[in-house]
Amino acid sequence: MSRLHTTTRCPRWVTRHRLLALLALLSAGLMMALRWAGADAGFQSTVLQVPFDERFNGYDPEQALAVVAGMDTLQYRAYLRYRLLDLLLPWTLGACLSGCLCQLQARRLARLGWLAAAVDTLENLLLWDMMLQDSAPATLVHLASGVTQLKWVVYGLTLGVLGVVAAQRMLRRSASAEQGDG
What we know:
Layout: H1 3-7, H2 17-40, H3 61-69, H4 73-85, H5 89-103, H6 111-132, H7 138-181
């Protein structure tokens, strides 16, 4: 077996239907829990309106630092809960997306799910660093904001690829069924 072949194989555990369903449910549950924790952190009443992670357009240092500095103890604890939950989501969602692409025989493209998880995790680490500092440097906030935007691009690309691959698979099945009937 060549080295190239072994690097393009999908792990068996990620292609099991029950596990994929569990990963999808776990990801959805984590997303709902994040919405709840983000609401408890009081982001709706700030200039950002939503937690940093959920801002497609990023954020600037003045806004971000003002939001963190303006949190009371309960809001800060809720945001800590948000940050902790968000350590799990990238990997459950990434494994789910990767597994779906593997199920569709798009083994090389399945790496996009893991790439999305890695970028999301980097964003989370930067946000932890920003949150734990009394006054985070503007360069850290700009970097975190840029990685947040990159995360959304990678997740969007991964979902787009998944949609295209699924559509191709359905079209192939439809064409082969028509040939069988003809």
